[in-house]
Recover the amino acids of this structure.
């Protein structure tokens, strides 16, 4: 497959990107032309190299848009050079160091130019402010210098994003606002390091680079662990589904609905993540149920039913030892279904259990099961609303309905994704395909 | 004097903020503040401030950790601080530290910091802080290096611009704490997930209840005894927890026997890229093969040892004889020798392993009673 070669990729805002680039080079030309103190060139090269490295190896954390720690390096250059070439030095460090290798590979050359130009302008302005306010270790010079960099940089980037992606300025601002404190933390730190550099020299760099590299390694391993957690959970979901093919995709859907509700109820990202794992693993007990019982055609005898329940209970009790699974106890045990049965639970994790109960029941209702076709979404919503306050936690039920309606999504009869043909005749009892959360299961349980 | 009291309160507060180490154990963030203090003030003021700070921590420590742990922590901190102070005095050898002399200040700080952290590591090694805090230099290294660098930035920043610059230089220390915290939390969640999964074959009654947890307990002790690093120990312990997981797929595969369990388990675990190393250990855990590793031998022997000991710690010595008799390969002999040392030196080895598995057993016990009642009710 031959892709068209050597094409430059431009987004709608390319004119703005080029205009900023021209302006930046104009400013740089003016600085050089008017004669300014020259920085130590070796140090400029080292700092630019470090910045290039930092900009192209920074980790994007899952929960936050990021201000690259590279920002520290340019602020260190400003304080380090100070009157001795701070403006020119900082501008050149950014001009070289801000090149995004990923963007070059994508042939988005105008954006690469813009990024360099934008940070060069911000750095030159920040350095000018720092020097104008007397430099050294004066707090006002530190704070206003950081603020100048942030204002110039955020202002230009905001316009660029609005033009390139046709987004509303308010929406872009809402994305940027949470990272503003990072400017302060990294910026001040950079200026501190620059000041120390003036008296200590190159020995300063390892003091910053070594812990930075260690923290980076810790983050990388942290991300690897998250992936591993994901993969581990997936392997076991596959194992559950291999044992009980009637519920293929069930865990994923329950997790999705649970996330909808968590979002609606304003859970933190960390809590959302735990909720997701708990939802994905809520049927883990099935792994321990002997396969011949799980897929037994026809009703279970009371003895068989007791065996199934026993296995399930043991799993559940054991899962209480896992922090993020502890809330699931009520979901997977007998008490699970009814919100009104247990108002006494006051621990703050109880909400997770209620959420998964609702998600589990909603998926059971809107999927085609062995003993009935999927119900329509309207019927399922009515059921959720009617049993709100008795079987279901009212807040959870309302949150799910609201979240699905807001997304304008459709589930249930006519929209189900998993209308499988099964080789084995479907079971009737309330285990196996019926799932522990099926609101109809109580009718099919042995008396 | 007000400045000294305020400083000591800051130091005390920082000593009570802990950073979690990824392989277990904790270290106070305040170590960095104490180390930084060596170049912020002279030796006599250092002694006054840290002395007061240690005093302030006493009531909080006693309330939060109990008298015994409080005394142990205070002991380690006092000796570490004393070592830092001694090194500080020697390194200055009577020459006052000029305000412009940053290089010398950095060297003094590094020397004092290394003394402090070495004392801490040495005392941990003796087990003074308890088994949870038994952390060696390999495991604590990255955090301690970060703390040392953070302390240096803090101390130098203070010398340059006073309190407010020192506050701005706290960034790296807070970043260190944040990243290690996230890392340790993710590791714990993952460990718990593995633990939950390891119990599934036991609940399915294809493996004795508590076997995975007890085997893991023996494997951990053996890994420490054989001086495996933290990463290798973790791999061995995870493999010990999961070595029977393949038993779940025996039916579907139509296979039987320990070797089938090991290879089915390895195939299942191998699907998780992160656990490729663990899968290899599990694959070799049934039988000593040509490419046998010490890791696989540890899991194999820990598992066999538990097969013989089970729930009765009194059987440990007989079990040792049986596994000794079975071990025929090089790695096997090595591991059995380590196990013998352990069993003789730590009579409570098996008792502790059985205790580690007791939550699993009691959960199962409570539930069987429950379902017996249920059955009665149903019939």
């Amino acid at each position: 497959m031959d892709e068209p070669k050597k094409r430059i990729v431009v987004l709608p805002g390319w004119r703005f990107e080029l205009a900023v680039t021209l302006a930046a080079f104009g400013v740089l030309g003016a600085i050089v032309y008017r004669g300014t103190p020259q920085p130590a060139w070796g140090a400029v090269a080292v700092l630019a190299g470090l910045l290039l490295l930092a900009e192209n190896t920074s980790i994007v954390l899952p929960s936050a848009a990021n201000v690259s720690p590279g920002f520290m390096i340019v602020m260190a250059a400003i304080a380090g050079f100070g009157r001795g070439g701070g403006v020119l030095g900082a501008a050149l460090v950014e001009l070289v160091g801000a090149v995004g290798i990923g963007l070059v590979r994508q042939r988005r050359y105008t954006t690469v130019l813009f990024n360099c130009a934008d940070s060069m302008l911000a750095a030159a302005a920040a350095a000018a402010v720092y020097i104008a306010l007397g430099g050294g270790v004066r707090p006002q010079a530190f704070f206003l210098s950081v603020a100048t960099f942030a204002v110039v940089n955020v202002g230009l980037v905001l316009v660029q994003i609005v033009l390139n992606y046709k987004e509303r300025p308010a929406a872009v601002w809402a994305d940027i606002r949470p990272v503003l404190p990072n400017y302060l933390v990294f910026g001040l730190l950079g200026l501190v390091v620059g000041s120390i550099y003036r008296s200590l020299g190159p020995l300063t760099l390892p003091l910053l680079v070594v812990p930075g590299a260690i923290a980076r390694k810790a983050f990388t391993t942290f991300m690897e662990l998250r992936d591993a957690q994901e993969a581990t959970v997936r392997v076991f979901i596959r194992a559950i589904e291999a044992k009980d093919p009637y519920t293929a995709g069930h865990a994923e859907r329950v997790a999705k609905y649970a996330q909808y509700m968590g979002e609606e109820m304003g859970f933190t990202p960390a809590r959302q993540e735990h909720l997701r794992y708990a939802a994905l693993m809520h049927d883990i007990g099935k792994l321990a149920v002997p396969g011949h019982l799980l897929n037994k055609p026809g009703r279970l005898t009371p003895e068989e039913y007791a065996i199934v329940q026993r296995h399930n209970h043991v799993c559940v009790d054991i899962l209480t030892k896992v922090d993020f699974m502890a809330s699931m106890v009520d979901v997977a045990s007998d008490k699970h279904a009814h919100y009104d049965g247990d108002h006494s639970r006051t621990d703050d994790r109880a909400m997770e259990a209620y959420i998964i109960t609702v998600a589990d029941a909603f998926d059971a209702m809107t999927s085609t099961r062995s003993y009935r076709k999927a119900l329509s979404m309207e019927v399922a919503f009515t059921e959720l609303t009617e049993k709100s306050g008795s079987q279901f936690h009212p807040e959870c039920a309302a949150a799910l309905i609201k979240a699905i309606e807001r997304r304008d999504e459709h589930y249930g009869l006519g929209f189900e994704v998993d209308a499988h043909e099964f080789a084995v005749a479907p079971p009737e009892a309330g285990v196996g395909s019926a799932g522990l959360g099926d609101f109809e299961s109580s009718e099919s349980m042995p008396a | 004097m007000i400045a000294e009291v305020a400083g000591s309160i800051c130091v005390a507060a920082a000593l009570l903020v802990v950073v979690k180490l990824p392989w277990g154990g904790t270290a106070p963030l305040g170590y960095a503040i104490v180390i930084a203090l060596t170049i912020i003030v002279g030796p006599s003021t250092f002694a006054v401030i840290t002395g007061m700070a240690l005093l302030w921590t006493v009531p909080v420590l006693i309330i939060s950790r109990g008298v015994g742990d409080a005394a142990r922590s205070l002991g380690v901190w006092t000796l570490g601080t004393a070592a830092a102070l001694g090194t500080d005095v020697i390194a200055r050898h009577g020459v006052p530290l000029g305000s412009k002399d940053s290089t010398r200040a950095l060297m003094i700080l590094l020397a004092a910091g290394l003394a402090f952290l070495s004392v801490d590591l040495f005392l941990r090694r003796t087990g003074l802080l308890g088994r949870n805090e038994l952390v060696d230099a390999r495991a604590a290294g990255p955090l301690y290096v970060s703390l040392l660098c953070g302390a240096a930035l803090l101390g130098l920043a203070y010398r340059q611009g006073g309190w407010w610059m020192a506050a701005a230089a706290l960034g790296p220390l807070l970043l260190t704490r944040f990243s290690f915290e996230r890392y340790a939390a993710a590791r714990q969640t993952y460990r718990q997930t593995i633990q939950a999964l390891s119990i599934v074959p036991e609940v399915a009654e294809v493996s004795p209840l508590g076997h995975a947890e007890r085997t893991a307990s023996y494997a951990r002790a053996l890994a420490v005894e054989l001086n495996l690093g933290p990463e290798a120990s973790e791999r061995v312990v995870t493999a010990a927890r999961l070595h029977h997981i393949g038993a779940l797929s025996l039916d579907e595969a139509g296979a039987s026997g320990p070797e089938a369990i090991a290879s089915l388990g390895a195939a299942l675990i191998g699907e998780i890229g992160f656990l490729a190393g663990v899968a290899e250990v599990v694959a070799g855990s049934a039988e000593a093969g040509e490419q046998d590793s010490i890791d696989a031998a540890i899991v194999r022997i820990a598992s066999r040892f538990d097969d013989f000991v089970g729930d009765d710690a009194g059987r440990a010595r007989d079990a040792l004889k049986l596994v000794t008799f079975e071990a025929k390969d090089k790695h096997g002999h090595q591991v059995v020798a380590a196990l013998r040392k352990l069993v003789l030196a730590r009579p409570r080895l098996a008792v502790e392993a059985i205790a580690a598995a007791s939550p699993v057993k009691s959960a199962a016990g409570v539930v069987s009673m429950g379902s017996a009642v249920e059955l009665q009710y149903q019939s």
